[in-house]
Amino acid sequence: MTTPVLKLGIAGLGRGFMLLLPTLAAHPDIRLVAAADPREQARRQFTADFSAATYSDVADLCADPEVEAVYIATPHQFHREHVELAAAHGKHVLVEKPMALSLEDCQAMIDAMHRAGRWLVVGHSHSFDAPYLRASDMIASQDFGAVRMIHALNYTDFLYRPRRPEELDTDQGGGVVFSQAAHQVDIVRLLGGGRVRSVRAATGNWDPSRPTEGAYGALLNFDDGAFANMTYSGFAHFDSDEFCGWSGELGQPRDPQQYGSARAKLASIHSAEEEAALKNSRTYGAGLSLDNSKPQDSAHNHFGLVIVSCDEADLRPLPQGVEVYAHTRRYLEPLSPPEIPRREVLDELITAIRHDRRPVHTGEWGMATMEVCLAMLESARHGREVSLSHQVGLPGTGTL
Amino acid sequence: MTTPVLKLGIAGLGRGFMLLLPTLAAHPDIRLVAAADPREQARRQFTADFSAATYSDVADLCADPEVEAVYIATPHQFHREHVELAAAHGKHVLVEKPMALSLEDCQAMIDAMHRAGRWLVVGHSHSFDAPYLRASDMIASQDFGAVRMIHALNYTDFLYRPRRPEELDTDQGGGVVFSQAAHQVDIVRLLGGGRVRSVRAATGNWDPSRPTEGAYGALLNFDDGAFANMTYSGFAHFDSDEFCGWSGELGQPRDPQQYGSARAKLASIHSAEEEAALKNSRTYGAGLSLDNSKPQDSAHNHFGLVIVSCDEADLRPLPQGVEVYAHTRRYLEPLSPPEIPRREVLDELITAIRHDRRPVHTGEWGMATMEVCLAMLESARHGREVSLSHQVGLPGTGTL
Question: Which of A154, B139, B207, B272 is 20 to 30 A from B223, comparing alpha carbons?
Answer without folding.
Answer: A154
